[in-house]
Amino acid sequence: MLDADPPSDWKKRTRRDLRATVRTIVALMLREMSTRYGRSPGGYLWAVMEPVGATMIMAVGFSLLMRHPALGTSFMLFFATGMMPFTLYNAVDGAVMRSLSYSRALLMYPSVRWIDAVLARFLLNLLTKLLIMVLVLAGILIVTETRSVLNFGPILAGILMTALLGLGTGLMNCVLEGLFPAWGMIWGIATRPLYIASGVILLYEDLPHFAQDILWWNPLLHIIGEIRTGFYPMYSASYVSIPYVTGVGLVLVALGFLLVRRHNVTILND
């Protein structure tokens, strides 16, 4: 009978594996940072200017049609509090969806595992878009007269739900696109209406009742409503259900990890 490994040896091996995993994830993140932002003119500057420009265009356009935004006094803040969480979700979902194809060559090495590629793209895109979100919203609060009183609890809860949902849908889409290459185009077309259906432009309360009954099942609508309550203390998004969004996200993440673990070899070999 073989003797079991001493507890100290098991702990040392676990620490070595953890350190190796962290080094691999950091290396993959640095690689993507250099290829995506380091070689393009402007780099991260363009990543910040794009949402700023989109927010300004929408704010100017709607200010010509309406006297006041649906919440508060600043059109820019209203649209930014909807557009930035939506952009954060899209970035995380898209990055995780293509994590295996993006790192396909590196995944041929035994030291790089599929979960390293997934976590590296998830963390990098989450942190990048989150930093951009903070810069844009802070700039709007400083430059414009918003009269906002921030409540960081709902804002943080909304961001965490966005990250969880983006990771979950990204993992599911990673499997679907890997097994059915046309899925990426189908998903892109199917989710285009989400910009309107997620409350970026219109508040949930302003929608017809039949639309409310349908769109309530959209987790992004809850996320944007929760984040907006952190910027507008007078706004009470009573329709928001944090347990619902969290439950959907956890189910998608668990199922997605299980399916990617099972099919990652098939996806990489196709």
How are the secondary structure elements laid out?
Layout: H1 7-36, H2 44-63, H3 75-97, H4 99-102, H5 114-143, H6 152-179, H7 183-190, H8 194-197, H9 209-215, H10 219-231, H11 242-269
Helix pairs in contact: 1-5, 2-3, 2-5, 3-5, 3-6, 3-10, 5-6, 6-10, 6-11, 10-11
Explain what this protein looks like in three dimensions.
With 270 residues, the protein is mainly alpha-helical. Helices cover 72% and strands 0% of the residues. It is built from 11 helices and no strands. It has helices spanning 7-36, 44-63, 75-97, 99-102, 114-143, 152-179, 183-190, 194-197, 209-215, 219-231, 242-269. It is globular, with a radius of gyration of 21 Å. 36% of the residues are buried.
Order of helices and strands: HHHHHHHHHHH
- Alpha carbon gap, first and last residue: 43 Å
Task: Give a quick account of the main beta sheet: strands, pairing sense, barrel closure.
Answer: none
Number of strands: 0
Helicity level: over 70%
Beta percentage is under 5%
How much is the radius of gyration in Å? 21 Å
Low-pLDDT runs of 5+ residues are none
The domain tally reads 1
Separate helix tally: 11
Overall pLDDT score: 85
Q: What would the principal axes of the Cα set say about the shape?
A: globular
Secondary-structure content class: mainly alpha
